[in-house]
Design a protein that fits this description.
Blueprint lengths: L8 H4 L10 H10 L1 E5 L4 E3 L7 E7 L2 E7 L2 E8 L5 E3 L16 E4 L3 E7 H11 L1 H69 L6 H20 L5 H17 L5 H10 L4 H11 L4 H39 L6 E4 L1 H12 L7 E6 L7 E4 H19 L3 E10 L2 E8 L29 H12 L3 E7 L2 E9 L16 H4 L1
Parallel strand pairs: 10-12
Antiparallel strand pairs: 1-8, 2-7, 3-6, 3-8, 4-5, 4-7, 9-11, 12-13, 13-15, 14-15
Length: 490
């Protein structure tokens, strides 16, 4: 290794990570570390490869990315001198898999101070034994807590969504079953009445005319407009009186069916002229069965369509059949989330949508945004209890799209507000929350989408505002030497 491949101890001290070390430690690093160059566009290291080196950026710009479902997702981008990555967990030894947890790539020609992983681990163990024990405890303790609480958060969310979806699916499914049973009875009745009509009592001309009236009844029922309760009652009275005058049995049972199918007295008079008074009872019942069957098939079609719409909403919510990052309509995402959560929203809570339909679609991670909407809506519903107004608003805010979730609950106390996005912090009672929902939402909006999330609250009016770039935003510089960044975490 030549002098040009190394840093002098005083040069090592200029890196914020090493500025507090003593002279002997700096000399040790200068002796064992080396300077390496990488061309712009090349990988410094790749996710999943054995973690052999610890890298500190000297010059140039780099990006950090993670692989998710086959796609490389950029986590951070920076040109800040001194940020580090690579084998940052080498001090844990074989207790964790020593592989690179992400991919570091040079955006421009870059230069790094590189330290072998085993040398870095030895320095950590010998120079900072107490800090090492604290780091180990923090790492394994936090990982265990994150695993348990994260799994519980996902299970709770999955349970709530499953319960809501099951409830919503049960209603149209039960309606379809009831309509099918009723339809079976009507078809049986139609067969019986047809046998009575077609047993030779009617000549061919009259039978053909009755069949034509049946076809007209089917079309009329399909095109019938719903009547108001008052108009329907008047029509049923008129039909019931006509049927009773013409000695049709159970006229008040038949009248509502005929009115629902758009049938009036003039049309029944045509039936009487076609078949004669002696066959009128059987003919009217046969036609009533036909109309009722058509209406029941409409109910079944409506129920099955509702089931299909719910399945479509579930697919839209989960984004299972879509690329992780794509152009999305936030209104479609919001509506899908509302559909999934409908069973959890009490009847006393009114849902108001104030959408700006002129807003364009935006590039985003659809499934992750649905997680944000779920957390915000769920919190809003919890804050209101059984009564209130949930308002979803969208509008343009400069070059960003704003989504606002507002509720009329008691509000967030001022002393609590600065902590609401902290992980594990919750104002809910024990067992009702994990404190991860808003933390997850913050990271999805800010870290993954380069957006912002804010809250305004006073009693009776709490608003969570999510701002998302309308166009593909350049990834933010997340490497802050005063605190951990995605790149510094390695």
């Amino acid at each position: 290794m030549t002098a040009s491949d190394r840093l002098a101890p005083e040069q090592v001290r200029t890196l914020f990570l090493f500025e507090a070390l003593d002279d002997s430690q700096l000399a040790w690093l200068a002796e064992r570390g080396r300077v390496e160059q990488r061309e712009g566009g090349s990988a410094v290291y790749n996710e999943g490869e054995p973690a052999t080196c610890f890298f500190v950026l000297l010059s140039g710009a780099v990006t950090l990315s993670r692989r998710l479902h086959g796609d490389d997702i950029e986590v951070s981008r920076t040109d800040r001198r001194g940020v580090y990555g690579g084998a940052t967990q080498a001090y844990l030894g074989d207790r964790v898999a020593q592989v690179y947890p992400n991919t570091l790539r040079a955006v421009s020609d870059a230069e790094f101070f590189v330290l072998p992983a085993d040398e870095f681990a030895d320095a950590m163990r010998s120079w900072f034994p107490m800090a090492l024990h604290l780091l180990e405890g923090l790492f394994f303790g936090t990982r265990a807590a994150d695993t348990v609480m994260g799994e519980r958060e996902r299970l709770v969310a999955l349970g709530a969504l499953s319960a809501g979806l099951t409830h919503e699916l049960n209603n149209p499914a039960a309606a379809a079953v009831r309509a099918t049973e009723a339809l079976r009875e009507r078809v049986t009745g139609m067969r019986h009445k047809l046998a009575m009509i077609a047993d030779g009592r009617l000549d061919g001309t009259r039978l053909r005319g009755l069949v034509e009236l049946q076809e007209a009844a089917v079309k009329q029922a399909a095109a019938a407009s719903p009547l108001s309760a008052l108009d329907a009652a008047d029509a049923e009275d008129e039909l019931g009186d006509w049927l009773e005058e013409h000695r049709v049995a159970s006229p008040w049972d038949l009248a509502p069916i005929l009115v629902s199918g758009g049938v009036g007295v003039p049309w029944l008079s045509m039936v009487a002229e076609t078949v004669g008074d002696e066959h009128l009872d059987s003919a009217v019942r046969w036609l009533a069965y036909t109309i009722d069957s058509e209406l029941l098939m409409g109910e079944i079609d409506d129920a099955v369509t509702r089931v299909s719409d719910l399945v479509g909403a579930a697919k839209q919510y989960s984004q299972l059949d879509r690329a992780p990052h794509r152009t999305v309509d936030v209104h479609t995402l919001l509506d899908a989330t509302l559909t999934m959560l409908k069973g959890k929203i009490p009847a006393g809570i009114r849902v108001v949508k104030e959408y700006d339909r002129e807003l364009p679609s935006i590039p985003a991670f659809g499934a992750e945004l649905n997680q944000v909407w779920t957390n915000l809506i769920d919190n809003a519903v919890d804050a209101m209890g059984d009564k209130g107004t949930l308002t979803l608003r969208t509008r343009r805010a400069g070059e960003r799209l704003l989504v606002e979730v507002a509720d009329t609950g008691a509000g967030i106390p001022p002393e609590v507000r600065p902590r609401i996005f902290e992980p594990f912090f919750t104002t809910k009672s024990v067992g009702d929350g994990t404190g991860l929902g808003l933390d997850i939402s913050y990271r999805i909006v800010v870290n993954k989408h380069r957006g912002d999330i804010r809250v305004e609250s006073r009693p009776g009016d709490t608003r969570f505002q999510v701002l998302l770039p309308i166009t593909q935003a350049p990834p933010a510089d997340l490497a802050d030497p005063t605190g951990p960044s995605d790149l510094a975490e390695g």
